Amino acid sequence: MRALLAVLGGLGVLGVVLWLTASPAGAVAPSADAGAELAARWCAACHVVAPSGAGTDAAPSFTSIANQRTPDEVRAFLTKPHARPMRGFNLTTREIEDVTAYIATLHQKAEGR
Prior knowledge:
globular; Cytochrome Bc1 Complex, Chain D, domain 2; single chain; 113 residues
């Protein structure tokens, strides 16, 4: 009987651990490809969003952003953009994750990875 209780107790703990570490239902990893498409559609009017290019006086290139900011900093900025041209530019949480993932790929390319 004690052996059965020990097994069941262990499964209970395992179940709680799995539940705590599981991704939310339906969660999908960020898509750098989707982020690149969003950047081309919404950001390219001011930013150079391609892997190469120097940027403009109006806005830094995405490669420059990738080399100067961490993904967490990019994500925080996109959540609450402060630059005047970006006011009212509201991305969904999913879109923010995708654009952040795309920008992160530019950092890797710049570092030669």
